[in-house]
Amino acid sequence: MSANVTQEGNGFDLLFHTNTESGKTDDLKTHPSINIGFINNSGEWASISGHASIETDRSVVKKHYSPALKAWIGDLGDGKHDGGPEDPRIGIIRVKASTVTYAVSNSTTLGSFVELAKGVATGQPPNVNKLRELTEAEISQWKGQ
Description:
Elements (H helix, E strand, L loop, with lengths): L4 E4 L4 E7 L3 H8 L2 E7 L5 E11 L2 H7 L4 H5 L16 E16 L3 H14 L6 E6 L1 H8 L2
Protein name: BLI-3 blue-light-inducible Bli-3 protein
Pfam families: Pyrid_ox_like (PF16242)
């Protein structure tokens, strides 16, 4: 799966490039319920639950194609499987988010260390992130805007 991520549906549908000849596409056809996690260097994170589908429609693939995919897919040298936008191995994994839980940082890195030290001293959990959740109803409402 390529690291290139595109957002649709007001940001709640995530699209990933994939090699359709990999085992993950078979897995997703059988078990489309998924969870994806992201984290950044400051400790902020997101956990997205939803359902995945595989799209091979060439117009969708071309719309989101990037020349960098050639490095991920490779060129088999047969003129057809060349990593280009017409390569039948390139597909899109579309993830439709159902729920999202995420944490945003309350402070700087130094502030997080202070909170951690306070937690160690007091036995109380450190207040380093603010946890937020988006329900399925909230996501549906946002997508409809």
